[in-house]
Amino acid sequence: MAKSVITIPATKSLYEPQDGDCGSIRKRRAAAYARVSTDHEEQQGSYKAQAEYYTEYIRKRSDWEFVAVYSDEGITGCNTKKREGFNRMVQDALSGKIDLIITKSVSRFARNTVDSLTTIRKLKEHKVECYFEKENIWTFDGRGELLLTIMSSLAQEESRSISQNCTWGQRKRFADGKASVPFKRFLGYDRGQDGSLVINEKQAVTVRRIYGMFLQGRSPHAVAKALTKEGIPTPGGKQAWTSGTVRSILQNEKYKGDALLQKVYTVDFLTKKKKPNQGEVPQYYVEGSHPAIISPQLFDRVQEQLEKRLSQKKRESSTGVFSSRLICGSCGSWYGPKVWHSNDKYRRAVWQCNHKFDTQNTCRTPHLDTETIQKLFVRAANALYAAFKEKEKILEDYSEIAKRLYQASSLKPAQMAVITGLVQETQGPLVEFCEDDWYSLADSITVYSREDIRVLFKNGSEICVQAGREKNGR
Predict the structure, then answer these.
(1) Residue 159 CA, distance from chain mean position
(2) What is the C-alpha separation between 149 and 147, in angstroms, rounded?
(3) Which stretch, 74-83, 141-150, 201-210, 258-267, has highest mean pLDDT?
(4) Looking at residue 406, what is its pLDDT?
(5) Cα–Cα distance, 179 to 194 (Å, whole number)
(6) What phi and psi, each to the nearest 5 degrees, are found at residue 80?
(7) For residue range 339-374, what is the model confidence (pLDDT) as tens digits?
(8) Residues 6+ apart with CB under 8 A from 422
(9) pLDDT per residue over 185-218, tens digit each?
(10) Which of 428, 445, 424, 180 is nearest to 334 (CA)?
(11) Which residues of 167-178 are buried (b: 16+ CB within 10 A; e: fewer)?
């Protein structure tokens, strides 16, 4: 007996949204997506025009219901990670709030082929269609994905070409010695009329202070702590400074008027990932590129100090004003802060050798509390003051130190009077401990015993404090 096949034609569209209660076709909830790739003023008009056009375009359709116009301004289309408007639109679509997405072209939707196809397929699974007006592509159409693949690949290749052209132009500017910086996140300079670097005198004071405080002996951590306490904003406008930010300023050659160009390069034009240039692409060093905030000699001194501190065998610490400045005379290690009886009424903070109990031969150097160290420094500084019989000699030595520090840190005259208190006839000897005095004058303190504690000053003088008696040496 012959088989008989009867065809029952489809009465519903596979992707057409249905009204579950009555079975009637409801209006499609339509949204539009607009994107401009730069935030230039001329592009703002383009974005506004797109938003108005698609709002009216959707509202004119009687079978569509307007949802919203999603947008991203000044954002690249090479990937979707940072496109907040796009991602919010996709999330709303997947949540069942949108049935149709309309956009101007495939390149507006995404220039990354993988991102484009992945997103379209995900939307399609949730019965959300996309319409690209310029190419007249409907993703529910049988040819839609093939056309979309081709157009997305072309858009990605166009993006690659644009990126290569931009890279070539930037490297050409580098080869011509034209420096540029991210002015909104770079302390000390503003953009001039011709794009050149112009000193911002207000910010330059902070830059000079950073160099000055570092040369005084402060660590990058201590400098960052001081700037944060004073409420000085970071280059990025934040309140809290980090040692990394301070260190980057201390190591940036642009502050001495030179410019090393192409320190980093873009690895992938799609992800915009950047990598430090370690010889993969050419670099250019421009001397005298722009006005200097820090003299070349001062900049070089800072680099020497950074290298010296980094190469020291003993680990440096930055937890306090005396960190990495107190030396154990027995084993040569740093003194570090310790807390005794931390959980009871006998709590006490002291400084002692970090390796006091690490070896079989226990260091016999004593512990010292902060107040004792401060008094020792004041006594040693006053002993140094008294040791010089010729006033002109001390004025010559310390005036030179003060002069260098003043140039380095741009301190106000009143602040300088505090730092150079030892050489001011009207002020006489130090009365109490001051951090500025400590950083400006002292190099280190070496502890051998309670009767033999030696304060080394930056001018090479050493004062030995012995149980209330002072010896001086040169």
Answers:
(1) 28
(2) 5
(3) 201-210
(4) 47
(5) 12
(6) -100, 0
(7) 887 677 777 888 988 888 776 667 888 989 888 999
(8) 381, 384, 385, 394, 398, 429, 430, 437, 441
(9) 889 998 888 778 889 999 999 999 999 888 887 8
(10) 445
(11) eeebbeebeeeb
pLDDT in tens, 219-240: 898 899 999 999 999 998 899 9
**CA 338 – CA 214 distance, rounded (Å):** 25
Contact 265, 280 (CB under 8 A): yes
What's the pLDDT tens digit per position in 18-43? Answer: 444 444 557 899 999 988 765 444 44
User: Residue 291 and residue 288: Cα distance in Å, rounded?
Assistant: 7
User: Which residue shows structure tokens 């020792």?
Assistant: 376
Q: Distance (Å, rounded) from C-alpha 146 to C-alpha 202?
A: 59
User: For residue 119, is pLDDT > 90?
Assistant: no
Q: Is the confidence at residue 413, as pLDDT, over 50? A: no
Q: Nearest CA to 78 among 163, 14, 5, 144?
A: 163
Burial zone of 90 (CB within 10 Å; 0-12 exposed, 13-18 middle, 19+ buried): buried
Among 333, 341, 443, smallest CA distance to 384 is for: 443
* Amino acid in position 393: K
Query: Which pLDDT does position 97 carry in this prediction?
Result: 94
Q: What's residue 468's pLDDT?
A: 47
